[in-house]
Amino acid sequence: MRRFLLPLFFLPVFLFASNVKLYMKDGNYQIVREYKVEGDRVKFFTVERDEWEEMPVALIDLKRTEAEQSAKQTEINKQAKEISEEDAAARALQAEIMKIPQDPGVYMLDAGDQLRIFKAAESTVHSNKGRTALRLISGIPFSGKATLEIPESHSVNVIAGDDRPTFYIQLSTQEAFGIVKLTPKAGVRIAERLTVEPVGKYTVEERDSIPVFTKQLTDGGLYKIWPQEALEKGEYAVIEYTEGKVNPQIWDFRIE
Question: What's the pTM?
Answer without folding.
Answer: 0.67
